[in-house]
Amino acid sequence: MNLMLRALAAVCSVAVSLNTGCKADDITHSSVENSTSQYAALGGTVEAEESFVPDKVAEEDLAPATNAECTVKFGDDSIAVQGDGVRVSGSDAVITEGGVYSFSGESAQGRIIVQSSEDVSLILDGLSLSAEGGAVIENSGTGRLVVTLAAGADNSIICSGADTIGIYSASDIVIKGGGGLYIGGSSESAVCGGAVKLCGGVLDIASLGDGIVGEKYVLSAAGSTEIKCGGDGVKVSDVDGMGYVSISGGALDIVGACDGIQVDKAVFISGGEVKLNCGGGSSAVLYRASGARYPVGKHGGYSTDGRSDFDFAKLVSGDGSSVGSKKGIKSGGSIEISGGAVEISSADDSFNARGSVSVSGGTVVLSSGDDGIHADGGIQINGGKLSVDNSYNCFEGMFVEINGGELSLNAYRSGIVAAGGTNLAQGLTDSTQRFVSISDGRIELKTGGSGVDSGGAVMISGGAVTVFSGDKPRFGSVDYRDFFALSGGAFAAFGSDGATKAPSLVARPCLSVFAELTKGSVISVQGADGCVLFSETIPHDASSFIFSSDEIELGKEYSIYADDAIVMTLTAAEGVFGGGPDGRSTGVFDELDADNDSNRDELAA
To answer: Which among 95, 289, 453, 593 is most buried, taking Cβ atoms within 10 Å?
Structure first.
């Protein structure tokens, strides 16, 4: 995926004013470019994870098998075989040749063992098998194992004892058809294969261990899969340079004690429905104010001490044991959402990637006891509809880039955070790797702490952004280390009078005021002619308000209302006006012309 900072072009193409109100022509285009070029250079270095195209489901994978060459019926005391390719060994039906085989009947100690170098297709047509230890259906051959669930038929596989697997294949597995299959009691995993393709049928899994395990990849294209497990729902390791999950269709519903989906390389979701509940869901994590800077977090018998910022991984029990991973989707590389419907409630991060996370389409609803989206690399939102209903931090990554979409974000602590992560390619950690860039989209952000918090820069060149942050001295609606460049879009931020910072580089007038605004009030900005530029009900008390839009005109009066009462009236001036939070000058302005030294000194003071 391309994680270039496209918004910089807009920032660098306009003349801007410092928040001191100096005229636009006092600061040249080259001055802005000098301040932002270090961020633009990131375009070639931010993508560290390996790129590859996931495998696709073929038509033959979707078509149910028919015309069985051999039929096998299990009984408690016998196995009846009609046709060639199957031999009976005690309570086991052993397949030695490739072909299509139909199975029915019931056995309390029955197994299907495949020993063939060719593809073997099993039609399960009213089959019920139970076994203790090992795999109930096992393919030790080198050919694919194709399982067709006959239309209208219910099938079941019951495992008991240690080291049990419902279906195992040393090669790939395809599950399809129009019937149902229940797999219960497995202690390791319910389905395990080289690659696992879910291409039809209704699969119901209740596993003491993991649900579905693939050594290379897991694909979902059709059918319905429901997993209840004591481990990970879907897990894929890295074999032959793969290690990914790709979901293009079907429904995947997982309730798991650990991670919902865990992969070594990548997760791709382009269609279908994905619903995950991990570690008891987000409501299983509670935060309690400790009286210190950080809250105490609790999950069952695990808790934090409140001495550092909350992280689910820091939860420990009384004997010092850690809580373990309980994430929605966990990737050692990237997560890419381009379509479908994704709903996750997780005790730990809902999305967690060592590389990058991107959302370009579909509907995503996240609820997390920790981060809604966490990436060691970057987070990029290009489209779709994304909601974070509950979280400690909504987004946390090395950088966050929003180029479109509809975003509704809610956090106990902070909203959009660009302050951590490590570039996997070069290991760079300076502030130029940490930025928040917004060029388009509609974003509403509600937090109990900081709104937008960047360890480097904030750049907004388009879209509609509304921030409601907590009214506490150490939290700001916008906070940054280097600079905040605002060159377009509609921007409104409510927050504290302490840590909040207004833009430091602006391309148009920006209103910034101190005002005591009460929770539940309708705050609006109106022109002298009665035109309403902005109107929102605020969810928190606020003591500062920052607003900018293309509709503000120099020299004209604008009034701020709380419900029907005027709070104040101001005349729009160049730069940041109104006497509220200002844009704190930092080292990024060292390249500005010497004529602006006095302005910079005033800001630093």
So the answer is: 453
| b (16+ CB within 10 A) / e for 556-571 | eebebbbeeeebeebe
255, 234 Cβ separation under 8 angstroms: no
Positions of E strands within 289-392:
296-299, 302-303, 329-331, 334-337, 341-346, 351-353, 357-359, 363-368, 371-381, 385-390
Pairing of strands 532-537, 565-571: unpaired
List of E strands, 448-498: 452-454, 457-460, 464-468, 478-480, 483-486, 490-495
| Strands 79-82 and 483-486, bridge-based pairing | unpaired
Q: Where are the alpha helices (DSSP H) in 201-297?
A: none
What pLDDT was estimated at residue 42?
A: 40
DSSP 412: S
Angle at 540 between CA 539 and CA 546, to 5 degrees: 95
Residue 10: partners with Cβ closer than 8 Å, 6 or more residues away: 439, 461, 462, 487, 488
Instruction: Give 210-213 contacts, CB < 8 A, sequence gap 24+.
Output: 210/235, 211/235, 211/254, 211/256, 213/189, 213/237
Average pLDDT value for residue range 229-254: 94
What's the rounded Cα separation, in Å, for the pair 234 and 459? Answer: 38
Helical spans, DSSP H, in 156-253: none
Q: Please, what's the b/e burial string for 584-599 (b: 16 or more CB within 10 A of its CB; e: otherwise)? A: bbbebbeebeeebeeb
CA 140: distance to chain centroid? 37
Give the pLDDT confidence of 142-173 residue by residue, as tens digits.
Answer: 999 999 999 999 999 999 989 999 999 999 99
Alpha carbon 261 to chain centroid, angstroms: 12
pLDDT at 590 over 50: no
Q: Which is nearest to 455 in space by CA: 506, 492, 400?
A: 400
- Residue whose structure tokens are 């270095």: 45
Segment 543-556 mean pLDDT: 96
Q: Is the pLDDT of residue 72 over 60?
A: yes
557 by DSSP, 3-state: which?
A: strand
* Spatial separation of the C-alpha atoms in residues 7 and 229, rounded to whole Å: 43
For the record, the structure tokens of 467 come out as 């921030």
pLDDT grade, residue 292 (50/70/90)? confident
Q: How far apart are CA 75 and CA 79, in angstroms?
A: 6
SS3 59: helix
Q: What is the CA radius of gyration of the chain?
A: 29
Angle at 325 between CA 227 and CA 317, to 5 degrees: 120
Supply the mean pLDDT for the chain: 87
